[in-house]
Amino acid sequence: MAGRKIGFGRVLLAIIVLVPTSPAHAQSEHKQVLVLQSTRRDSQFSTVTERELTRILDDGLNRNYDYYAESLDLGRFPDPVYKASFRDYLHLKY
User: Fold this and answer.
1) Would residue 43 count as lying in a domain?
2) Containing domain of residue 78, as a range?
3) Is 87 part of a structural domain of the chain?
4) pLDDT at 89 over 80
5) Angle formed at CA 57 by CA 61 and CA 71, multiple of 5 degrees
6) What is the secondary structure of 55-83 as a DSSP string?
7) How many CB atoms lie within 10 A of CB 74?
8) Rounded to an integer, what distance in angstroms lies between the CA atom of residue 68 and that of residue 49?
9) Residue 75 has what pLDDT?
């Protein structure tokens, strides 16, 4: 991808995993995973990411997690007011 820049609005994948501080405790504690994507939920990128990420999480966390996915869809809603509203929504929901 020489010479091409990928902007924040083009591809965003943020993963937040709440992990315990003690390694022994980490084996048994139920995790929560939040995935934020900038693309539409039905885009190929989102579909593949969700499929592969849940497969990896299933293996790594022994299916001991809650998985949440949100899609910002910045391509259709680039307005800064939308971004602020979405941030507030995430704050209230999670």
Assistant:
1) yes
2) 13-18+31-93
3) yes
4) yes
5) 135
6) HHHHHHHTT-EEEEEEE--TTT---HHHH
7) 21
8) 13
9) 85
Q: Could you tell me the two tokens for 13?
A: 């994948």
Please indicate, yes or no, if residue 26 is contained in any of the structural domains: no
Q: CA geometry: angle at 33 spanning 66 and 76, to 5°?
A: 110
Name residue, tokens 């391509």: 75
Total tally of structural domains belonging to the chain: 1
In this structure, are residues 67 and 33 in contact, taking their beta carbons and an 8 Å threshold? Answer: yes
Q: pLDDT digit string (tens) for 20-76?
A: 545 555 556 889 999 988 888 888 988 998 999 999 999 888 889 999 999 988 888
Average pLDDT, integer, range 3-25: 48
How confident is the model at residue 81, as a pLDDT?
A: 94
Query: Cα separation of 10 and 82, whole Å?
Result: 16
25 located within any domain: no
Beta strands 65-71 and 31-37, pairing class:
parallel
Query: Amino acid identity of 24?
Result: A
